[in-house]
Amino acid sequence: MKVLIKLGGTLLDSAASRARLAAQIASAQAGGLEAVVVHGGGRQMTRYLAERGIESRFVNGLRVTTPETVDAVLKVFAGSVNHELVASLNRAGARAVGLSGIDAFLVEAEQMDPALGAVGRVTKSDPALLDLLTSHGYLPVVACVAGGRDGCIYNVNADQLAVACAAAFGARQLIFLTDVEGVLDETRRVRPVLTAAESESLIAAGAATGGMMAKLNAALAALRGGVEQVRIASGAAPHVLERVLAGEAIGTRMVLAEAAA
User: Which of 77, 76, 68, 162 has its CA nearest to residue 117?
Assistant: First the structure.
């Protein structure tokens, strides 16, 4: 089964958390899972810039990406965060390969808004490299950086990049491992199952805002792009990946619509 696992950067900020998740992913792959990993690294990026006296500015949750920030995007997302995760996965027994969307036109993008600088909107994803690597037992690990046919480099929201890769790769499941337990409803309880219509209602009612609203919109795009289901769960939960893959009711499962009884 093809699965795309998106790891939030917060989960990768400590060696212990990174090693724990790497062990779970390597074990699942050894059991026959065709997996691709996409990761963010926003916390690491903000810290890197702050250490150099560069203020992080955000517009609607997107990091304004100046020319000097593009350099940091490559050094942090496609550099330290990606390679630390690859090393952890390899130590756990996987044959991980560090990539970004720039490689082999895996993810193409265009400028989203001149006011945001080099923030990219995904226009296309070519799964050929993912298919080649997974068919030979490798584990692709993709940083949230994309390229354009004109050679430009773009900082792309990791959730959006994960959706593009999942749909192109033909993943049956897109699993968001995050720092929250799942999607909360108006009563602040985790919703075990959400249809597309219910997700849109939560957004319209203001129950899902900020980062969760963005994640729900990304999940909806994945479902409409052919992914059978999207799971949103806490990456800190014990054995979370094994439990999600086994179909346990952990976190939130999102589907286009519930099957008729």
Answer: 68
Domain extent listing, the chain: 1-171, 173-261
Task: Say whether 138 sits in a helix, a strand or coil.
Answer: coil
Q: What is the pLDDT of residues 157-174, one digit of tens each?
A: 999 999 999 999 999 999
pLDDT tens-digit series, residues 18-54: 999 999 999 999 999 999 999 999 999 999 999 999 9
**Topology adopted by domain 1-171:** Carbamate kinase (3.40.1160)
Burial of 23 by CB count in 10 Å (0-12 exposed, 13-18 middle, 19+ buried)? middle
Direct distance between the N- and C-terminal alpha carbons of the chain, in angstroms, rounded to an integer: 25
**Lowest-confidence range among 59-68, 216-225, 251-260?**
251-260
Integer Cα distance of 160 and 94 in angstroms:
25
By annotation, the residues acting in catalysis are 6, 9, 42, 159, 215
